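pls read this stuff:
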Amino acid sequence: MLKKSFILLCFIMVLSAKAQNQTANWFFGEKAGLTFNSGFPVIDSNGEISTSEGCSTISNSQGQLLFYTDGVTVWNKNHLVMVNGNDLTGDDSSTQSAIIIPKPNSTNIYYIFTVDARAGEYGLRYSEVDMNLANGLGRVTSNKNILLEALTTEKITAVENADGESIWVIAHKWESNEFQSYLVDDTGVNTTPVTSAVGSVYSGDINNTIGYLKASPNREKIACVKSYTNNEVQVFDFNAATGAITNPITIDNFTSENLGPYGCEFSPDSKLLYITEIIRDNADYSKIHQYNLTLGTQQNIINSDVIIAQEAGLLGALQQALDGRIYVAKSNATSICVIKKPNEIGLSCEYESETISLGGRISRLGLPPFIQSYFFATNLFENTCFGETTLFSIDTSTIIDNINWNFGDPESGINNNSSNVNATHVYSAPGTYNITITIDTQGETQVVYRTLTIAEQPPILNIETLTTCETEDPNIIFDLTSNIPNTILNNPDYFLSFFETLDDANNNENSISFPINYSPNSNNQSVFLKINNANGNCYSISQMELSVISKPSIEPYEEVSFCDNDDNAQTIIDVGNLTFPLSSYSFLWIDSNETTPQIQVNQEGSYTVRITLNSSITTINPEGCFAERIVQVNSSGVATITNIETSGTTATIFTTGLGNYEYTLDNPNLPYQANNVFVNISPGIHTVYVKDVNYCGTTEAQFSIIDFPDYFTPNGDTINDFWQVYGISKDFQPKSLIYIYNRYGKLITQIKPNSRGWDGTFNGIPLPQSDYWFSVTLEDGREFKSHFTLKR
């Protein structure tokens, strides 16, 4: 005999794998959304909900969103308000303002159960949705806001009946200790509840209405949270056949009366209970408690308390997802928290704070509740990809006399059946199979059914390296989807997600939130594409490379000039100095469309060349990964000297022309200066040279600095034997007039500019040592008068 549980097994078998997909989409908080269709949470930012607490979402058996609500407004799958979907009587500040229940054996009718906040006047009501209306977008029918109970707490939960088809919807009355279990079957909502007067009375401060109500996935327990004044959690036995609730166990080791316990959730195996406790002191913080419900007595359960988390902020709802993990709402956060292994006792359950990003959306205190039995035996089937050996297992404790699995795969012949409790089967082809399980237990035979999808393994892709060119903006953006074939990207049977490490991809952790606008961590990085089969747990992981191509290293700007001295003037401009040989690049001069590294130009202007590395240097060069160099061409030319002004020993040179000019005196090989003014010039005749800095030519001109000797000594020693005006000659101001007088004003002689000067005689007779006077009238009209000394 096989030691297994009939009651548990019966439930497992009637639970369809597709039923879990009705929990695939979540909308909550401030337009926050997640989808679990790939088996792990992925951001969905399309939601319109805005709720501080309660909310509810429902999907079809394929995991496609149908509608969602905050208990007041209903939005359809297009995120528009459903027809007649306003003014439901829940409240977005009610802990569990709504829960959505499909009508058994119907593909189109759903019921929205709502509870008002803080024992409000609207109480517990339900409204009907018909998905066949409004072109398949659904409509709230005239069966709207139908009253079930006038005064209730903010709690509601749902779990399957023992028959595996009908649903129990459970609420708790206000100012009472009565639970009310309403049966929803193929005839609709039975408005006469099964009443269980058991446990604490809920009354007094209306804040005592706050707190979650949850059923265990195996349908055997109910947990009810009471916040504020008498904060406590009570755990009850639940009879899934009758709807009766019995045998309370009270957990009351909470420290805060503001708020105290708030959210609750059972582990997938229904053995552990998790409670969030909110402590609102000077600084708000929260705890998560874990209790072991298998320890029997109330005190043993209380003593099993393990604080798996304590952190700042408000931790609210706890809700299991179809991936078998429990997610934790954190108010005013852009991420939610997760308990990764909720069946593990103590810290082995692996709590992680704020690891599930909401893509900038905001979490509040609530998460959407579901029919809790949908989450039971999440992993009953393992290895459901085509080609794998599928495992079938039952973990229970009741006696099973005989069991027969029919795997619904007649192509496999004699291998289509197994009498092992833990059976295996390799399916002959991908597809959906109807499994029949026949169980003999305690003199009874039960035949139960389940549907299983064997999915094809998604392909591993050979993805071309995704490249882009570096920019001045350090936040380079990649669209990770751009190189993925449309047959994969647009395939409704595949769900794509991206990860930065292979471990994250394998563990479904830290997925990239915005793959279309992804900024890499380095210029060369790998990311990993995970392709999940939408109808199974099959996946492939493909590696894709990201490469940020550097632009060619160039001289970005240069100024050159050409000598515009005639009609044929031109110059050659080029691409400058490059890292690699010229053959490693391609060139495009934007204005002329020339593709050579040099071009000739014959007019000034700004010339732009686009320089791109060829594939011989970088194997993949995205379009647009080029550098641009600007060559500024200026006209230049030889100078025209228009005037030279002298004053004392200073000369100023005036020029006109196209170029920029430099100046030097007397020797063109001496250093030039940019200043056109020369000072402290020695007396005499000088030549100024004016050079164009762009080498278009040099021009020159003479000028003189006029000066006069203070004395001379005509003694025949060849030193200062003559007196002459400095700065004139036969070639420079040759018609100047020079007269010499004695001290009495008598004209002694006139000398010529081209002569050696006066020798100190008069009619050949040496004159005595004395002062003599002169007057000079230059050819250009300037006049000078002064005196000098003749020394003997």
User: Anything to note?
Assistant: Residues 22 and 60 are 5 Å apart (CA to CA). The longest helix spans residues 6-14. DSSP finds five helices and 60 strands in the chain.
